[in-house]
Amino acid sequence: MLMFNSLFLSLSGKTTIINLVTGKVPRTSGSIQLNGNAVDGMMSIRKLMGFVPQEDVMIRELTVRENIMFSAQYRLDKLLTYQQTSEKVDRTIVELGLAHVQHSNIGDEFTR
Questions:
Q1: One digit per residue, pLDDT tens: the chain, 112 residues?
Q2: Where does 1-112 have alpha helices with state H?
Q3: Strand partners, 38
Q4: How far from 70 is each of 20, 59, 63, CA to CA, in Å?
Q5: Please, which residues bridge with residue 34 across strands?
Q6: Rounded to an integer, what distance in angstroms lies between the CA atom of residue 82 and that of residue 72?
Q7: pTM for the whole thing?
Q8: d(CA 1, CA 34)
Q9: Domain coordinates of the chain in residue numbers?
Q10: Which DSSP symbol is given to 70?
Q11: Category of 5 on φ-ψ map: left (φ > 0), alpha (ψ -120 to 50) or beta
Q12: Torsion angle of alpha carbons 93, 94, 100, 103, nearest 10°?
């Protein structure tokens, strides 16, 4: 998982590198590798990654869990059952340390 600690990496080009990796801006040189293997186009590995832009584009009225579930149902293989998707969401919530807030609405910049 590619994660950045913004406290230590302020103004270090995090958004720029993510925009390059996701194909939002054209690459002028260099290469992109995933687990040591060159990747020609990001479409081939789209199911392996997700991108959360700096702007909040989540549904503010939903809970943390509901937003993750919505994203999972949109991104994951359509052949997965609801139960399988829910189990993946459970693991993601635990891995991200969000269990204590999973049933809280995400709110907005004024209401958390």
A1: 454 444 445 566 777 777 777 777 787 887 777 788 887 766 667 667 666 666 657 788 899 999 999 989 988 988 999 999 999 999 999 999 999 999 999 887 777 6
A2: 14-21, 64-75, 82-95
A3: 33
A4: 26, 9, 10
A5: 37
A6: 10
A7: 0.54
A8: 11
A9: 1-47, 56-112
A10: H
A11: beta
A12: 30
- Can you read off the two tokens belonging to residue 83? 């139960």
Residue 27 identity (one-letter amino acid) = R
CA atoms of 93 and 102, how far apart (whole Å): 7
Count of other CB atoms within 10 angstroms of residue 99: 13
Token pair 């990747």: residue:
39
φ, ψ for residue 87 (rounded to 5)? -65, -40
- Fill in the amino acid letter for 52: V
Residue type, 8: F
